[in-house]
Specification:
Elements lengths: L1 E6 L11 H12 L6 E6 L5 H7 L7 E5 L3 H6 L8 H9 L3 H6 L1 E2 L2 E2 L2 E6 L2 E5 L11 H4 L5 E3 L8 H6 L3 E2 H4 L6 E2 L2 H16 L3 E3 L4 H8 L4 E4 L4 H8 L3 E4 L3 E4 L2 E4 L2 E10 L6 H11 L2 H11 L6 H4 L2 H4 L2 H12 L1 E3 L10 H12 L8 H12 L5
Parallel strand pairs: 1-2, 8-11, 8-12, 16-17
Antiparallel strand pairs: 3-16, 4-5, 6-16, 7-12, 7-13, 9-10, 14-15
Helix pairs in contact: 9-18, 17-18
Length: 376
Amino acid sequence: MRLMVWAPSGDQSKDKGEWLQTCCREFAKQHPEYDIEFVYGVADEATSADSVAQDAEASADVFMYANDHITTLRNAKAAAKFGGIYEEEILQTNSEAVADSVSMDGYVYGVPFTTNTWFMYYDKRVFSEEDVKNLDRMLEKGVVSFPFTNSWYLPAFYIGNGCTLFEDGTKEEAGVDFGGEKALEVTNYLIDLMENPNFVVDADGSGIAGMRDGSVSAMFSGSWEASNLQEILGENMGVTSLPTYTLNGEEKQMYSYAGSKVIGVNAKSKHMVASIQLAIYLGSAEAQRLRYELETVVPCNIQLLNEADIASDELVNAQNDTFNNTSILQPTVGRMSNCWTPVENMGKGIRNKTITHENAAEQTEAMNDAMNSDGI
């Protein structure tokens, strides 16, 4: 039996312990009834689903993908549905929110192995635990870097003031509500924020570079930066869920997009049962723990999250606190693809000073209209 497995390069790196190969060898030991020849390919979670959707016949049996690609896979009939005992195991070993992230139309389309969101890292020598609860207080004490022109991050401010996407993220016909007075208030806040000398735009790695040379004391990113920041800050590395920001005298909570990273099975696999069993194993508590130990990938398995060493990990707590309390599930509806460019343009316009208080109302409505268009 030949099984092709795709995973990001880090999961296969010798420097990081070859997580994928190690787990596949263990799976083979546990299933002597199969005589498996594993073939490995490199494909990251952001692009693998598109490849499988475009040509399932030529793609891997098992692959990793980001859950916001579920719609693409479903529409192409390229992802296998997990049913029976396999669906039960997924639902029983994950929180309802994580399980929802891999479900659509009543079906489960993969095994989640980590939540996927972003939060805040900071230098404990500059900011106290009280400081990091509010962004504006932080800006009084140190320099904060934020991916202002990245449309995965900037909506945090708009969502915090009541803007919505497809109501709860699933009702495509409801459209996007990033307009009106609530959105205008945020645009005006962001224009002022850009004028603050202690606020800098994180682009092309400038945030991590600033943390390294000491010119930046806080930045927003995900668990993928944890090892780099640990190397830079050591015991002074702080990590926490998202802060509030002060809008017209009121504190508003920032909200990130959240989802999960998933192990999927190709609907065209010639070895469906073995492929599904392998996916279940790669997303199991045993495999998630090994991935956490080798690569600092934060687990989502409920059992692991309750184990003492993981439950006390500041990074794990920050990611899970953000996922559960200061995030919304990133919409997976098709029209979400129309939302990225208008928000990016808003961030770039404010950074470049072409969007000002004088034209903020017009530009905010233009962003909202573009997000609700049939494409941009």
